[in-house]
Amino acid sequence: MNTKPASTSISQPHTFQVIGHAGMRTTADGSLLIKPAFPAELQFYQILVKDPYLAPLRQFIPKFFGTLPPEDMSLKEKAIQCGGLPIPPGRTQSLILENLCNAFSKPNTLDVKLGTVFHDNMADLEKVLRRQKTSRETTSLKTGVRLTDFQVYDNASLEPICTPKSYGKAIKVSELAQGFAKCFPVHGEPSSSSTLGLPRRLLIPILRGLRDSVERIRETYSLLEMRIVGGSLLIMYEADWNLAEEGLKRTPLRPLDHGRKEQRATGRLPYTVKLVDFAHTCVSPGMGPDEGVLLGLDTMVRLLEGRIVELGDLSST
């Protein structure tokens, strides 16, 4: 799974607001992410690399290259000196991960919180009640998803327009499809003056590719007995029209066929979907599949399919 990473001797602030946590950094060349993490998340990545039971899941998780050595404090000190947000207490590990943003010129990005339960067995009663209330009062409990942060590039200003997690917490289940459409705007509609989004001819095949990818994640995860508590589904797709079009031409629409190994494409896909955030994740033998996360993945497939149909792709079924 791992290859030798680039040098981590110099870091800079992680520039994309949607992705990650306080204190997150990238290497100077942008290829790697330095993520402050709890020990439990490091433990999950170490198990993921070695345990053959989790091997089918590896392709759906950002590549893990190890940790920053504890004695190498220069990078951590620079993270604070360069204006990074303070690292929250308890995040004592510095994970070295693949920087998914590096594959895109202008990444339109959506972070979707998965599942219906947001507390683990170590949580005290106060936290359990608080997390249950959040699940019940948002879209999480009924659908297994909650939109958190997302950004979409403006074609006029060439800057990302960011929507905070407060939006996803405020919308109701009946408004979820409308909120989801904001993450995948279409440009050039006669009835709209919006400067956001891709033209329909590019957006529809990207949505179809995303749908197929989420279906594959769902199929794989349904065969595992594990729990991802508080994890997310991270979606990125290219906002640069030319690069998006080139990516769609170079790569197959369905890059991975069910039951077959990954096809080697000649170029990068203009989209990606990964599972992220594993601070409260564990293998749970005997407990069966994670129904809350599976519910969320099913909802994501329906939302993607609904957006495809809404945009008029009659061949989507």
Provide keyphrases for this structure.
317 residues, alpha+beta, 14 strands
What features would you describe in this structure?
The chain has a five-stranded antiparallel β-sheet, sandwiched between helices. Strands 8-7-6-12-13 form a five-stranded antiparallel β-sheet. The protein has a two-stranded parallel ribbon with strand order 9-10. Helices cover 32% and strands 21% of the residues. It is globular. A hairpin with a 6-residue loop joins strand 7 and strand 8 (160-163). It has nine helices and 14 strands. It is of the alpha+beta class and 317 residues long. 37% of the residues are buried.
Short synopsis of the structure:
The protein is of the alpha+beta class and 317 residues long. The chain has helices at residues 39-50, 74-81, 125-137, 140-143, 165-170, 176-183, 200-221, 241-250, 291-310; strands at 11-13, 25-27, 32-37, 64-67, 93-98, 107-114, 145-153, 160-163, 186-187, 198-199, 226-228, 232-238, 271-276, 281-283.
Radius of gyration: 19 Å
Major β-sheet annotation: 5 strands, antiparallel
β-strand number? 14
Element-by-element helix/strand order: EEEHEHEEHHEEHHEEHEEHEEH
- Give the fraction of residues assigned to helices: 25-40%
Shape: globular
Sheet/helix structural class: alpha+beta
List low-confidence stretches. Answer: 6-18, 76-84, 254-266
The overall pLDDT average reads 85
N- and C-termini, Cα separation: 34 Å
* H/I helix tally: 9
Strand order of the largest sheet: 1-2-3-5-4
Counting copies of identical and different chains, the oligomeric state is single chain
Strand content: 15-25%
